[in-house]
Amino acid sequence: MNTVVTSKEEILRTSRELIRQQGIAALNVRSVAAACGVSVGSIYNYFSSKSELVGSAVESIWCEIFHQPEDGAVFQDTQACITWMYERMAYGYREYPGFFTLHSLGFMQEEKPDGKRRMQQTWQHILDGLCFVLRRDPRIRTDAFNDHFTPEIFADVLFSLMLSALLRRDYDPSAVLEIVRRTLY
Question: N- to C-terminal Cα distance for the chain?
């Protein structure tokens, strides 16, 4: 066995590959060490526990799925952004079968506060992106938002619909796009 220390990114890349091929249940310090060709201790140089390793791997998958698009125009138009997000959700489902349901069951539990914090942080990044688009989309009516119905509130509604779609494996954004059209334009 190679005891040469690998990088944190290499460990996460290997963890994502294990999740892709075998599911999240297969991810543990020993399986990652074996796949990286390093000792178990090498993994512990970067992650203090299995929980931290799994949490970081899940976070990295969410970041891969919802990475910044090359086309910056996606964040100038609400409908284009939602379409892109649903396309990324479909990509996540194809690349990581079962990830959306399995990871949420394991990470949103009360006894895993770090996992819960990581998910909330990752989800907040997505919500912030939606708010950014809602504030910049020139097609949105000027009276669409007010003190009681803010971009943050609408982003939260949109994100809730997206999470529901993930659980249903429904990657067709047309119903959400219709809600956006009727509410904002």
Answer: 61
